[in-house]
Amino acid sequence: MANSNQPIKLSSDELLLMNIFEGITSVSPITCRMIEDIIFYIIHERDVYKMFINKPLVNDVSRYLKYNKYTPTKFVSALAKLLSENLKKKVYIVIYNDDLISFIKNFFGLSREDSIRIMKRSDGSIIVYINVPPDKRGVVIGRGGLRAKIGRELVKAFFNVSNILIR
Q1: pLDDT at position 119 over 90
Q2: Do residues 69 and 11 share a domain?
Q3: Long-range contacts of 7-15 (CB under 8 A, 24+ apart)
Q4: Engineering a disulfide at 102: which of 49, 52, 59, 97 sits with its beta carbon 3.0 to 4.6 angstroms away?
């Protein structure tokens, strides 16, 4: 993991949610953030493969898959649906990657067409610019800017990024 300049402080509810996630998946998330009725679990990419060997979990998740193809992204998406249903909150599971651009793409659900630029200022601060089509901007920012807020907090903690600007 990249050096963090700001540790992520977890609430007691977030710690409980991390324990629930670990109990269901046998994988310990890197962190968890809950804001309003939305939960973000951040898991390391190597842990996705550990979940594939958990047969009861695979059986539970398989009913949320349209096809029985267990690609990491589809599996994680189906697991998020399962958890959303059980926790009665919207759940996002983000696959952590040591590469800043890959992490941002995973977190915001960006495609290849979406542009990400990283600017390093003379004072050492790092700013990330994300350009997405206007029709996709609402999904990337999230209701009331919640997704953008959590995204900024996580990239600051994981990658020492000063700000993310979404255009």
Answers
A1: yes
A2: yes
A3: 7/157, 8/33, 8/153, 8/154, 8/157
A4: 97
